[in-house]
Amino acid sequence: MRWRMVLLLCCGLLAMPPLRAEEAASAAAGQPPQAMLYVLNNSGATLIASDMNITDNGQPLTSLPRGHYRQLPLAAGEHEFRFREFPQGSRVAKLSAAPGGSYYLLVAYSPGKSWLFPFGGDPVSIRLLPAEEAEKLLRELKPL
């Protein structure tokens, strides 16, 4: 009787599809599966350096100095990234994150554009990057 239960249990486990490492860790911790977010600060040089403060759905996410990036776990679902200093308006990046996905968020201040604003465009930008573009930029930035 006991060996039948062990056999059924083993067969049942073998028939289950394997979990990816991230999903297994999330399931073990009782958390929903997560994605990975890379936030990259590619701001130009300024006389006084200041950090970029980013929010996710109105909650503080990270603060990054110029020339750095940070890797963060991100819950699957809808996200709206903004600068903490600009909680309203068009400076926003929206993302629908899937479990196990990797996403790249670029934040930057271009001091050259600030002299020409509004004719030269917005000097502050926040947007999602494709993986190929982000990987090139990651080589130039320092991790936090």
Task: Kindly describe this structure.
This protein is α+β, with helices and mostly antiparallel strands and 144 residues long. The chain has a single domain (25-143), classed as Immunoglobulin-like, CATH 2.60.40. 26% of the residues lie in helices and 39% in strands. It has helices at 2-15, 21-29, 111-114, 131-140, and strands at residues 34-41, 52-56, 59-64, 68-75, 77-83, 92-97, 102-109, 124-129, 142-143. The strands form two sheets. The protein has a five-stranded mixed β-sheet with strand order 8-7-1-4-9. The chain has a four-stranded antiparallel β-sheet with strand order 3-2-5-6, with no helix packed on it. Residues 1-28 have low confidence and may be disordered. Residues 1-21 form the signal peptide. Keywords: Signal. This is DUF2846 domain-containing protein.
* Weakly predicted, low-confidence segments: 1-28
**N- to C-terminal separation?**
56 Å
Q: At the first level of CATH, what is the class?
A: Mainly Beta
**How many independent structural domains?**
1
* Total beta strands: 9
Helix amount: 25-40%
Q: Examine the coordinates and then state which fold CATH places here, giving the name of the CATH topology.
A: Immunoglobulin-like
The CATH architecture category equals: Sandwich
* Quaternary class: single chain
Round the mean pLDDT to the nearest integer and report it: 78
- Taken as a percent bin, the fraction of beta residues is 35-45%
Net shape: globular
Biggest beta sheet summary: 5 strands, mixed
The strand line-up of the biggest sheet is 8-7-1-4-9
Keywords: Signal
Organism: Vogesella oryzagri
Protein name: DUF2846 domain-containing protein
Signal peptide: 1-21
